[in-house]
Specification:
Largest sheet: 6 strands, parallel
CATH class: Alpha Beta
Number of strands: 6
CATH superfamily: Alpha/Beta hydrolase fold, catalytic domain
Distance between the termini: 17 Å
Strand order of the largest sheet: 2-1-3-4-5-6
Order of helices and strands: EHEHEHEEHEH
CATH topology: Rossmann fold
Strand content: 15-25%
Radius of gyration: 14 Å
CATH architecture: 3-Layer(aba) Sandwich
Number of domains: 1
Length: about 180
């Protein structure tokens, strides 16, 4: 499998470990990981600034962002601030930073922006994600103008939920890469 786009991997809170599908994809396809300064107590403005720097190292029209969890809200804030049209974004397991159950330590990520993204996106959600209810995940995706892909009882779509290689996710990324 080959990709024609510049693929930027953006993990969420805590970064993605070696067995996480994002890390596996990064190594397998030589994708570029967005390296944030602080993975444990992130500040939204800092994450947005770093993401913007990474995107601008490439032709934005050829960039696809692959985001997990808190990175999905980061993309929404980034898009609202910079309004740069990229090729697309794969937004996986968006977390609800406004929920009482959301881990403490993040700053500036609430409320989750509910504005349409200026680029094509696919949001992958689960029916039993402990970081977001299915209703809120659908609200985020619909507000962002995303195609919604519900993969059922998939937890937070991470290693603890059994998502390592995640070939079905690669097929969604390939769809974005092909431009449809």
């Amino acid at each position: 499998m080959t990709f024609n786009s510049d693929i930027l991997i953006h993990p969420g809170l805590g970064n993605s470990g070696e067995q996480h599908w994002q890390s596996i994809w990064e190594k397998r396809f030589n994708f570029i990981r967005v390296e944030q300064q602080d993975w444990e107590t992130p500040v939204c403005a800092d994450w947005v600034k770093t993401l913007n720097e990474y995107v601008n190292r490439h032709d934005p029209a050829n960039v696809i962002l692959v985001c997990h969890s808190l990175a999905c809200a980061t993309i929404a804030y980034w898009a609202a601030e910079h309004n740069i049209s990229i090729k697309g974004a794969l937004l996986v397991a968006p977390s609800d930073t406004e929920a009482d159950s959301y881990p403490s330590g993040t700053s500036g990520f609430a409320p989750v922006p509910l504005t349409k993204l200026p680029f094509r996106s696919i949001t992958v959600i689960s029916d039993n994600d402990f970081y977001v209810s299915p209703e809120r995940a659908r609200l985020f995706a619909t507000s962002w103008g995303s195609e919604i892909v519900n993969i059922g009882d998939a937890g937070h779509i991470n290693v603890s939920a059994g998502y390592g290689e995640w070939d079905a996710g690669l097929e969604l990324l390939k769809k974005l890469d092909a431009g449809y």
